[in-house]
Target: MFS transporter
Amino acid sequence: MDAELVRARRAVSVVFAACGAAFGTWLARVPAVQDRLGLTTGQLAAGLFGLAAGSVVALLLAGAVITRIGSRVAAIVGAVVLCGGLPLVAIAPSVPVFVAALVVLGVGNSTLDVAMNAHAARVEHGYGRPIFAGFHAFWNIGGLAGSGADALVETWHVPVTVHFPVAGGVLLAVALRAVRTGFLRGPDRGQGGPAFAWPGRALVPLGAIAFCGFVAEGAVNSWGAVYLSEVTAAGPAVAALGYFAFSVTMIVVRLGADRIVARAGAVSFLRLASVVAVGGFAVVLAAPVPVVGVVGFALVGAGVAGIVPVAWSAAGRTQPDAPGRAVAAVAACGYAGFLIEPVVIGVVAGWAGLRWGLVSAVVVTAVVAVLAPALREGRGSSAHD
Model:
């Protein structure tokens, strides 16, 4: 294997980890930021809306940006904005500034996310075999590392006004070094072409698959601990263990998913992933005690782990002339699921209970098995399909 490609693969993995750590740093210390500013629930919700709005706007523009400046430069821009957004959130003197800072954080996260995935597609193309899921495993690893560091600084009573600037500076230095020394030089395929183009019919089912995968992830991220606490009467520690188990199995499966896809094919892999995830949700819904619910969430993590990486990888191969634009289009569909599903679950839960709310995620996850053949039709699967 070409040494430049190997170096690029390592560099992209590092950037994925840095992105996950930066976003995980924010998520784990939301209560501390809320306390520092004395935010009401409504004011915090306004900030979170700003985060979502910034993310969506950046996703809509990311494809055009990458087509113009390339994934390497876009990754640098995204890293600077994301890591620069952390101290802005920490030192915000008022609610309007706090909301604006979260808009910046959302823009940076989405820009870096699409840029590093577009570059991952370029590296995978050079390898000539599936390696995409491994990159996403490093995002989860970074997220857990960021959360773990947050727990440590909480124990040491380090204020966010110190923690976020330090974390942002360190993660920015790590990401920039990886991009500058490891990312592939030269223009991306399709760079310099038209910034906007109709995404093509082949991307529609891939976007739907990404949507379904993010729905499952969003359901567990937003409601997993609440479900274990309210439905199975789990204590705070056990309730948090559900998300931890979900994250660990995601990492383990993503580290090995590329080999499975290479051997069994993407279509078979997605069908199996859907079955495992739905089975995991079934265990959660039937859980009589907290420990069974934790096992169920672990199974969900194992099932959903490969859905999004496979869809994004297929998107990059479906439009080889503009992989960045294709990845951005599929990513936008995916993040729509991440944003919408927690709200849907909350509405249904308020009407019929949290158990019924979670059923919506089960139904959507099952759709992945139905959509899986689209990877074959769109020539986004491996030769085994």
